Amino acid sequence: MNDTPVIGVLALQGDVREHLIALASADALARPVRRPEELAEVDGLVLPGGESTTMSKLAALFGMLEPLRERIAAGMPVYGTCAGMILLADKILDPRSGQETLGGIDMIVRRNAFGRQNESFEAAVDVAGIDGGPVEGVFIRAPWVESVGAGAKVVAEHGGHIVAVRQDNALATSFHPELTGDHRLHAYFTEMVRAAG
Q1: Contacts (Cβ under 8 Å, ≥6 apart) of 69
Q2: Catalytic residue among 19, 158, 176, 186
């Protein structure tokens, strides 16, 4: 891999465009990923916010569930925001019927933990490993992490709840950094992809 990693954004549903813009500003070659053959061409992957149940069902429909699980299990760097965090959880506390996860982070996640759409909010969040002060977190029907296992490291909390976790090459945040114009988390993830390459 050269100095410009190719980072995909799972483009089945959710705020794909905003992640593509944020990754491009972090000096990654960003591209949408919808099919297994497109997944095979990327060095890392972002799982965007959206509706986690819909995303897992679409991933199954597009033949993406197993290829995604295999790449994540094999150590491909992956970053999940909001619904993407739920997809990366090994366990969901209150799954919808038919909802599946990809796994990758030893954590238990509670869906919509911060409330409904009309209870969305923004907050400054201190994230371990991110220099330059807190990042602005946009919380939209956001999950939180109930607990983490031995392999996972809590990198941010808000209001007494875990909102960002890292385990090896997997990173997850409850909030949406792609909606703020502050691309430090995307730059951090791009560095994770470079380091793994």
Answers
A1: 102, 103
A2: 176
